[in-house]
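Can you please make up a protein's amino acid sequence together with its fold in token form to help me picture the idea?
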Amino acid sequence: AMLRLRLLTWDVKDTLLRLRQPVGESYAAEARAHGVRVQPAALSRSFREAYGAQSQRFPNYGLGQGLSSHQWWVDVVKETFRLSGVHEDGVLTSMAEKLYRDFCSARNWEVLPGASETLSRCCQRGLRMGVVSNFDKRLEDILCQCNLRHHFEFVLTSEDAGFAKPDGRIFEKALRLGGVPPEQAAHVGDDYSRDYRAARAVGMHSFLLRAAGEGEEPRVPPEHVLPTLSHLLALIEK
């Protein structure tokens, strides 16, 4: 039976947009501009460590602990460089501020194949759309610069909501913004627990973007799996 969907919510990172190059490459280029030589692979490893530690200590950008998302990110960038052996304070601050601004721009992000076309076709079919993303407030800008913002009625980030996926309250807030009951909404994302399972837990439909053979995660019914974004319309219109 055709799903009676009125609202689609979308994850962004690795669903609609992806980084143009590994974080370590961007950070290494910024270091070079400051006369500092660091290996991209080392920076990528350091970033994972710094980001992981900061996320544990200060979940959702430390909002509940008095941090701003800007400060949260500046600290992650500085710690990434420190772990890679760069310790000069002035240089760290300068690089961190510059990288924070750069990751706002389309320079660092690219639209995934099929994303623009799929969003346009969903709009043409009268589906209302919104974003539900564990992201900070730069996301509006990024979506505008990548020419995707106009597809969405709302952009709900974990910073705006005060809750991060898989917390069901961010999805409940999205449903209120869309004015639609959960059974008339579906979420599209690439993460099993934060996107697929979390949306289903609040009663929404859900589609998992997963390249063929990628990740031996818990079984997901094949009709909920998208090998590419272009498969979405066929599944919705079944």
